[in-house]
Amino acid sequence: MRTFIALDLPNELIEQVADLSRQLSSMVRGRFVARSTYHVTLAFLGEISEAEARRVMDVLDTACAHAAAIRLVPDGLGIYGKPVDATLLLKLAHGRDLMNLAMAVREELRAQGVSYDEKAFDPHVTLARRARVLPQALSDLVFPAESSSNSVTLYKSELSQEGATYKPLYTAHLG
Ligand code: 3AM
């Protein structure tokens, strides 16, 4: 199964990100993602076996055992890729607790021998894919307020013609 580990967004932040997304959708062409899929990826694992998935559940328990709720502080828009065909992101500030949690999850994955994509952690919420982003077209945006996440989830990602659907397999609570 194709999997990743992500911080979940609290409802008030989901509402505000959806509102930002609505504002952007009148300024940017692209495939805006469904609000039900908003998350902050901490580690992308790719294909793992059932046995590895069970070890990842232990990873979440260990990494989250002593962690408090994590502050999520919006920090403007960003893109991956070329502006004419980009992934459009809500960037998040690199707060100490957030960075430490991602590091703890990744360290624990290594300790359990589960491999993951080792690109540096860059906290964000994906808003749209295949987006054509012309910065001069963006104006007067209302950004989400800071908020806190209380849980980390192992997700299974199923790809189809309509895009990816994410199914929670296991959640560990923070705080
Ligand atoms: O948090 P976001 O939406 O940026 O881009 C994919 C998504 O991240 C990322 O994993 C999350 C759930 O699909 N992803 C997909 N394939 C990936 C890969 N090969 C990947 N991240 C790193 N390497």
Find the structural class using helix and strand composition: alpha+beta
- From the alpha carbons, calculate the radius of gyration and give it in angstroms: 16 Å
Q: What would CATH call the architecture?
A: Alpha-Beta Complex
At the first level of CATH, what is the class? Alpha Beta
Q: Which hetero compounds are present in the coordinates? A: ligand 3AM
Tell me the strand order in the biggest sheet. 3-1-9-10
User: How is the biggest beta sheet arranged?
Assistant: 4 strands, antiparallel
H/E topology pattern: EHEEHEEEHEEEE
How far apart the termini lie comes to: 29 Å
- Helix content class: 25-40%
Here the CATH topology equals: Cyclic Phosphodiesterase, Chain: A
Q: How many helices?
A: 3
Please name the fourth-level CATH homologous superfamily.
Cyclic phosphodiesterase
Would you count the extended β strands for me? Answer: 10
GO molecular function, one term: 2',3'-cyclic-nucleotide 3'-phosphodiesterase activity
Family: Belongs to the 2H phosphoesterase superfamily. ThpR family.
Enzyme class: hydrolase
Domain Phosphoesterase HXTX: 7-82, 96-157
